[in-house]
């Protein structure tokens, strides 16, 4: 099926409110958003000219490309399950010109075939058409492009808006540039837009305002929350009013198993605004194809993605050509419909895992913990109710000692919520991942946790 065609499937959206009449922010708009280090980066004298090698009648003496006749690999076969019938396997062969591309250096932004496929996917899944002021860079996982986008946008000491609790892998990026952490509280419906408004409305006029807001809007890692469409709209309206960009980090988008219709992405919703171009969207194939293959991608304004590219030119040059070609070979053989069929099977798998986990929570930790059931992703975020009616002041509101020490001593490993607080502090919350364990493992882990909580409450 071609990009933009109709399938009626659950992962496709058409919430563009002004089709054909979108107004895009001009290139100059992004100039003040770029960091000093991004502005100072110079294009690589070689990588910047590589595309000219394909010009007719050009003989290239340009790049130090190794002679591929010396490469010992002559063929790569990948065996893959059918998305419609996982019992059926087929073999995809990477040979000929595909193999040549897989084994050689390639363009910084990504393999052209893969980029084209992904661009079509963004139209298919998010209603965003190619050539409308945005493009894509492939990254070694989404973490790679997330980090580079951060460095391209933030100057030393700049304030950064970050949802709280937040993905620990982004919290650890913040000290790189000594960012001032501005925590924006969340609840089960996503970012609390009223709190965000309060922060921004009371921002001291003497201080530069935050340029970016970081959020994981589907099946948030760690809280499991999925932001409602209303909250997303409110946050977008604030982005326009207070002039910041939204970093939409969405690796759990295709793991949604909640009620339909699903909330549209920020990347889709921003087309409702009078001006489009405030969203940088980060996708990942880690949870749906393979985490080891290290393929993620960022979709967003060309000017910012060019700055991300310059960073890549001076760090890892590009993502592995081999894994890009492997991914492209698989996706090309599937097409968009089969890709969506596959992601639906993935989300159904995690829905069942989530159900099993919750049922065990009720049996083992009912009354000892509280939680909101996630509708996407692979995490359960629950609060330890440590003060029993008999000993109301027994322990503080803190999961740190209980989870990091006591639970481990009792043979269960989970993460205390404290590691997800961007500004530090205490919390009684715990993050448990339910992606791998079978029912018996879940039951036993929670039983062990129950012993630890009961012991703490008995103090
Ligand atoms: N963002 C979030 C919220 C994540 O949970 C992860 C993976 N744990 C990443 C980004 C990084 O994913 P990738 O494997 O694509 O680099």
From TrEMBL:
Keyword 4Fe-4S assigned: no
Top-rank taxon: Eukaryota
Annotated SUPFAM superfamilies: PLP-dependent transferases
Taxonomy of the source species: Eukaryota, Fungi, Dikarya, Basidiomycota, Agaricomycotina
Cofactors required: pyridoxal 5'-phosphate
Sorted UniProt keywords: Aminotransferase, Pyridoxal phosphate, Transferase
InterPro entries the record matches: Aminotransferase_I/II_large, Class-I_PLP-dep_aminotransf, PyrdxlP-dep_Trfase, PyrdxlP-dep_Trfase_major
Assigned protein family: Belongs to the class-I pyridoxal-phosphate-dependent aminotransferase family.
Single biological process term from Gene Ontology: alpha-amino acid metabolic process
A single MF term (Gene Ontology): transaminase activity
UniProt xrefs under Pfam families: Aminotran_1_2
Keyword Mitochondrion: no
Residue ranges occupied by any Aminotransferase class I/classII large domain in the UniProt entry: 100-449
Name of the protein: PLP-dependent transferase
Disordered: annotated span: 1-23
